[in-house]
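Hi there. Long-time user, first ticket. I'm pasting a complex I've been working with (about 389 residues overall). I'd like to know whether the download I got is complete or cut off, because the file seemed smaller than I expected. Thanks.
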Amino acid sequence: MRELYEKLKTRFPLGEFTDQRDNLGFITVDKDQLRPVLYHLRDHEGFSHLVLLTAVDWIEEDRFQLTYLLSNRTRSVDVGLRVMLDRGEPVMETIHDIWPTAATYQCELREMFGIDFPDSPGVMDDFILEGWDDLPPYRRDFDTKKYSDETYAHREGRVTHDPAEYMKKQLYPDEV
Amino acid sequence: MKEELQKRTVKGPDGFEFEVDPLNDYYCSEAPKAHPPAYAKIVESFFNWARSESIWILGFGTGCGAIEMRPLMTPRFDAYRFGVQWRPTPRQANLFIISGYLSVKTLKRAIRSYEQMQNPKYVLGLGSCTINGGMYWDSYNTIKKLDDYMPVDLFVAGCMPRPEALLASFEELKKVIKAGKAEGANAYAENFDWYKANQKKVIKDWDMPDYNW
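Hi, the file is complete. Here it is re-exported in full:
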């Protein structure tokens, strides 16, 4: 994987490199360098398949990380491109013209993380959350439990046991 | 509200312009009516016996529990010997199995399907998720109490219940129906406003008629 990184580095300004496995590596790319790198990987390095596009919320660093995972099927090699976005203004260029499947991922990211992809087809449509009016739920400052308690009625009588303690009580009632 | 449901002026092919208000023109706003048992007890018992032996299930899987219904259609479990079969449309079904967690998006479709079913109709909550949220008890997108949104005749606990549990539940449901206690459709009609209020509380983009499909 390092080979590929060194090769790319002669052409593009690249960030950090993580050598995960023999056939998997991650490269940090600048926001405006992503498109040329994607084209190069697709057209010259055989990474013809977009496996997934996902995001990570680095709330402590005030950033979103987008991960574009590409696969070279003939060589069974995957490479992930990391793009860091400002958390205050999360806008990214759409890549649906390179891989049409990206439009669905972008739709989901807009809904779940609130990352906008202008001009991506149907990006503002409701995807899973219909009529959602709160913070995007995958953001880490969204409190799932609090939202659930406020929105849905809960049935009385739900108890939580510590599994170890509970089984001890069940199996060895004399020792507790 | 969706564009196709909004009031608008339409120009016909002959150039004639007319106004369309889909929610009022295509549906009527009449609420459902309760149909209490009308005949002598012995006749109603006969009806209930007949109903209990013809359980036709709506083929709508809402959560992971839907996968437990598939084996029942195979020779190994063969649910058909209990007078049970699956139907592709709500118009032909009288049992709705809510098979696991219900997200808000699915709840909307489930309510539509339930209301399209003919009376008398029964609902079976399969799995812990329908009872108290199960492992999704703190999720932002699943309901925790199914019986707040539609009348439930029987719950089957488990995560997930095995197909055998579902078979046993058919037998239990038959007992409930034969005892004349499966009056869910009437309960829905009688407490219609309460059910609608609960449904509208969680479905925030309500863009369908309240009843009458």
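A couple of notes from our side: Chain B has one domain: 41-202. The first helix of chain B runs from residue 22 to 25.
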